[in-house]
Amino acid sequence: MGSRESDLADLLSCLSYEPESGLLRWTVVLPHCQMQIGDEAGFIDVDGYSYIYFRDRKFLAHRLCWRLHFGSAPEIIDHANMDKSDNRIFNLRAATVAENNRNRGKQSNNTSGYKGVSFHKGMGKFHARIMRDKVERSLGYFKTAEEAAEAYKNAAKELHNEFARF
Predict the structure, then answer these.
(1) 161 exposed, middle or buried (CB, 10 Å; 0-12, 13-18, 19+)?
(2) Which range of residues forms the domain containing residue 146?
(3) What is the DSSP string of 25-82?
């Protein structure tokens, strides 16, 4: 079996990318495959990302799309609309770890219904907080979850720019 880099180069030579639709298509017929030239390549896995299997290796489709479009890929590629299978070029952007983390929805254990908002039992109020540069910043305590969410939204727009998610 070849190296991951040589397998990647070989795989890229077998694909074409449609930036407007985000689709990858086969440009050659591979042995032992039932696909045809022009067929859509890849599948969406349980994690929501689109992948392509090639030589017993699994490749993330959005990384292949970026490489085919730009010639190389950054360490992290963010899906701007948070749809992990939407590989249209305008939805993909280079990001840092921090930027990628900012573009996440509320956590699964969130009980307030709003990102960055939790209920403080001792105060009987909703607490809005935001992270920036590994530092948690308190945005204050509010009577309603909606008021706290508005404070978070305003801070996210200011601190996180195009990576703000609320």
Answers:
(1) exposed
(2) 106-163
(3) EESSPPTT----TTPBP-EE-TTS-EEEEETTEEEEHHHHHHHHHHSS--S-EEETTS
With vertex at residue 100, the alpha carbon angle to CA 141 and CA 11, rounded to the nearest 5 degrees, is 160
Residues 10 and 82 in one domain: yes
Q: How many domains does the chain have?
A: 2
pLDDT tens track for 61-115: 999 999 999 999 999 999 999 999 999 999 999 999 988 888 888 888 888 999 9
**pTM value?**
0.78
Give the count of beta carbons closer than 10 Å to the beta carbon of residue 141. Answer: 15
Boundary of a domain, candidates 52, 72, 95 = 95
Amino acid identity for residue 80 in this structure: A
Q: Dihedrals φ, ψ of 133, to 5°? A: 55, 45
Q: How many CB atoms lie within 10 A of CB 122?
A: 5
CATH assignment at residue 32 = 3.90.75.20
Residues 85 and 134 in one domain: no
